[in-house]
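Hi team,

Filling in the usual template for the complex we talked about on Friday. All components are listed, including any nucleic acid strands or ligand strings, so the model treats them as one assembly.

SUBMITTER: L.P.
PURPOSE: interface mapping
COMPONENTS: two
RESIDUES: 479
SEQUENCES:
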Amino acid sequence: MTYLFYPGCSMDASALEYKTSMLAVFKTLGAEVQELKDWTCCGASVAPVMSDLLGLALPARNLALAEQNGERELLVGCSACYTNFLRVAQAAANPATLARINQALEVENVTYHGRIRARHMLEVLATDYGKDAIAALVKRPLKGLKIAPYYGCQTVRPYASYDDGQHPTSMVGLIEALGATVQHHLHEATCCGTALLTTKPHVGFEIVAQILNAASSADCIAAVCPMCHLNLDSYQDKASMVLGKPVKVPVLFLPQLIGLAFGLPQSDLMLQREVVPVDSVLAKLPA
Amino acid sequence: MTTSEAIDLTGTKRNPAFSDSLTPAGHKLRTCIQCGTCTASCPSAEAMDISPRQMWRMVNLGLEDEVLHSKTMWLCSVCYQCHVRCPRGIPLTETIAKLKQLAIQTRIKEWRESTNFYHVFADVMRRYGHMREMEFMARYFLTTNPFAAMQFTGMALAMLSRGKIRPEIPKLGGEGRLDRLFNRVAELEGRK
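RESULT (copied from the run log):
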């Protein structure tokens, strides 16, 4: 299978290990992934606050570029980009809105037709491949490893159709395919706090603390969004202060865990980039 | 405000068209039944000065000033939980984005730690066409509250040492990557 891929800002910067491991996993699965050329920021949750049209035009610029090759699907790893693309596709179903978006896009010499569909990396792994296809490629089963799935918010809501928006399960089969155990907890689809960690730190730290506390009986957390990963991995000292007890649980991107089970080299997994060291995870694995 | 506290609206300035102005879906707020599912679903409701349920009632009552000056909207982390759970199917999260937009456009002075986040983020996006995390954080803290940056130094150092963030030289002059698109949007929206 071939996929056109939109990395977005984070996967090219702080979450480079997400992009690198995802590409390596897809390659192992036999997929051909091509990065969208000349992409720009999707506008995150900021553009719609600055202006209605900017909030539509920034994601639409990328969708328009992607449509130029006749593609019908766009692979996305960041849940915020993903939600933005689905939001714009829904708004563009109104011909007047679509026309206005294209008035704005004239200066970029592209036209959006509303034909292309964004698909989350998790959706593609769970539905185009699934448990059996993943399990068939496992060389080093993650036996004995308890993995807490963490979907966050925009990975599964409000527009995702591949999973339940409040009680998602799409990671379960994938984690089991690796030979690991799924450690369910009460905050799998709770928000990570996103920008509150910066703008209202005390509120954000509390949110992160509750999630980490709920997931702390696992050996590690599996994340599928750069923002979730950043918040859960980078603020564990603050969360420990909030909880009044030390909490230390490694947070890996799901493709890093799949890559580990596939026996992919360290250069594909970039495990040394995580703030909370993953040594405890590696030590648990059979030699 | 506590839940039991009644609001005396005598002589209060009200904008009866407030909910309708929150396009495209604000008019649906008229069907709000005040069930409180939004408040119960919100991960940061406890830190708000007015709860989401109260805020939507105030929007319907046309209490524009009170709502726009409240910090409630700035505690929304855009997680869409209230949005998907609302029994009336009101797209609440996207209506909050519109409230934030109004507050920024009417130059509300409070909650600068939040409003400035949007201004700096948008400017970095316009200039480079993508996010530059380090420049964004540096500019955000320098222009908001440099002392608040202290509690992030440990995290920033950890990320620097792992190569997760990297210093880049800011490009201050010249045309920004998305200047044309930003200008075109402003022109179409009659802001230029």
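MY TAKE: The two ends of chain A are 33 Å apart (CA to CA). Residues 52-67 of chain A form the longest helix (16 residues).

Thanks, L.
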